[in-house]
Amino acid sequence: MLSIIQAAGWPIWPLILCSVIGLALVVERLLSLRERRIVPAKLLDEVLAVTRQSLPAPDVVAKLHDNSVLGQVLAAGLRAVGTDPRMNEAALRLVFENAGRVSVHRLERYLNTLGTIAAAAPLLGLFGTVVGMIEIFGSQAPTGASNPALLAHGISVALYNTAFGLIIAIPALMFYRYFRGKVDFFALELEQAAERMVPHLMRFALRTAPAAASAATPATPVAASPSA
């Protein structure tokens, strides 16, 4: 491996850095975007069952928040209804929407970096190819003779950097697409869970009694009868 790096020349070092960063990001996202950490299978049904009669205690909501990403979204709705029992449906949907937006943003962490590596690696490989071509042309002497060692080194730099750029870019692009699809799936699951929770939690929202018509409408003055 060391001999390949030496043959590829100094342009290979940015590609090696991209490969190390890309591998670390792929491993981190594989561990973070597991379904049981994002949307556990039976969590929503358990929350619906626990809150069938009344809202849970604050410590239970805190444990739900620490359970998973879905738990954070559901806990946001439970806390909103517990804090403001007169909350209407539009306000509750806004709470779920904001919590879901924050959660999806966290799920997308490092994906832009991985996509950048997938796009930049072929360009870095092309840069190494250009450097190799320059060395190839530099091996040609003005008299027409060529330096075989310098020519071979230039060819090695061009080919190795091109190959390394593709080797890094193709898996990075595949994992980027894979993780993007998983984030979209989790976002849809969070949205559907919030849709199920909204009518369930609205049962605990207090209804403001309408004002009496007599209080809302001013009294009609009675005309005085004409004197005889």
TrEMBL record:
The residue ranges crossing the membrane are 12-31, 110-137, 157-176
The main location is: membrane
Per UniProt, subcellular location reads as: Cell membrane; Membrane
Bilayer disposition of the protein: Multi-pass membrane protein
Q: Name one Pfam family in it.
A: MotA_ExbB
- Is the Cell division keyword given for this protein? no
Every MotA/TolQ/ExbB proton channel domain range: 67-191
* Membrane is among the record's keywords: yes
- InterPro entries in the record: ExbB/TolQ_transport, MotA_ExbB_proton_chnl
Q: Which UniProt keywords apply?
A: Cell membrane, Membrane, Protein transport, Transmembrane, Transmembrane helix, Transport
Family, according to the entry, reads as follows: Belongs to the exbB/tolQ family.
Q: What is this protein called?
A: MotA/TolQ/ExbB proton channel family protein
